[in-house]
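Model it.
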Amino acid sequence: MNQKSGSSVIGTDEQIISGTNGWLMLMVLLPAILFAVFLVATPGGPVKLIAGTALLTVALFCCKGLFTLEPNQAAVMVFFGSYAGTVNASGFFWVNPFYNRTRVSLRINNWNTPVLKVNDERGSPIEIAAVIAWRVQDTARAVFDVESTLNYLQIQSESAVRQVASSHAYDAAEGGQRKSLRTDLDAIAALLRDSIQQHVEVAGIVIEEAKIAHLAYAPEIANAMLRRQQAEAVVQARQKLVDGAVGMVEVALKNLEDKKIVTLTPDQRAVLVTNMMTVLLSESGAQPVIQMAQSTQ
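Modeled.
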């Protein structure tokens, strides 16, 4: 075990070991068991009986060291309270029968956090939940450094989700450069993954992916925020309409003057601009009378 610099957390270093070929040991143990049974079962003196019994006991005890591992599975070996190493290869193996084995799955798991109620960067209450894909990378830390890997992940992931949600706004502010929870999904997902990874590093867990699975305003402000979003959408749409109308009026006046179709006085230009803006921006199909008269010389 070694102590990380700058931290009071003591982490256990994973040590990979390889077990003896289980089939080879089986070929040795089976004849030994058969021979021991023969010594016990056949008539003879007490020495023969004791020797057969001892050989049978040892052979059967050695069989305790035989075990199999499936792909993406590991076994942590403990020898009288001391960490002896980890076997992480799949197959049939034999190890010291005094080893106490703890199996650890290295497969990817999914965890859905509960829906959390958090205040975002602007102080608005929101509901947020995330789906996390994770797996055990360091078996020694997962077994010895935390009481329960899954329970540790659940608590720490909720803490990380709250941290990310409270440091970002639900929606992007007008003219803002900061990332928002609703619009910048990929960036928030990467930030969420890194935040959770920092929280669960001590448990030997690696976060493969973390994404927001649920995001909404809290019920008490949902209607008000919906009206605000609708108002913002209307304002943005109006702004685009005004910009487009101004551009069209400018082009129209320029073409009239360049092609010398008509010469307008300032008052006539004002009336023309007013009528064109009314037509372009009206939602009810206004039809003003557009007067274009030649100015007197």
